[in-house]
Design goal:
Number of helices: 6
Largest sheet: 5 strands, antiparallel
Strand content: 5-15%
Radius of gyration: 29 Å
Number of strands: 5
Oligomer: single chain
Number of domains: 2
Order of helices and strands: HHHHEEEEHHE
Length: 161
């Protein structure tokens, strides 16, 4: 079997032809319709047949690694960004948790308390400052911009307690 000639032949095949070749080479059908994936898998299998696959020692080591690995039994959950988590840095535009930022808007003073994992406004907790701004104005705004916290290190709009 000439692998180089097979590579050239595969380059001109349609998806349908590649799927047929895949079924012939692997002995099973595939759901993939991605040409590059199919070509690479077919070429890999052909090379394994011609040149040999992994050694017995390599297979044994792969099994050992798989046995030692911690397997996830469910999809990862959504993470909320919190300054309390190790390695996470707080956004320097925000004051420390517990502080209150204010803004005058349409004759009202808007006060938002900074929490460890969100923002509190009128007894409601919001995940982002932009969500607070949407609740206040009814429109999408950049929360940092709305409260005058646009530039890192800028202290406009902050009132700490």
């Amino acid at each position: 079997m000439n692998v180089a000639a097979a590579i050239t032949e595969l380059a001109d095949m349609t998806v349908r032809e590649l799927r047929q070749r895949y079924a012939k080479v692997f002995g099973e059908t595939t759901n993939s319709r991605h040409k590059d994936f199919l070509r690479r898998r077919i070429i890999w299998r052909m090379q394994v047949r011609v040149e040999g696959g992994l050694s017995g020692k390599a297979h044994a080591r792969a099994r050992e690694l798989a046995d030692e690995a911690e397997l996830r039994m469910s999809a990862p959950g959504r993470r909320s960004i919190s300054a309390e988590k190790p390695g996470m840095q707080r956004d320097k535009r925000l004051p420390m948790p517990g502080a209150i930022i204010t803004r005058e808007y349409k004759g009202q003073t808007i006060e938002v308390r900074i929490l460890h994992d969100g923002f509190e406004y009128c007894g409601e907790v919001y995940r982002t400052l932009s969500a607070v701004t949407k609740a206040v104005t009814g429109k999408h705004w950049n929360g940092y911009h709305f409260f005058g916290l646009g530039k890192r290190g800028n202290s406009n709009g902050r009132k700490e307690q």
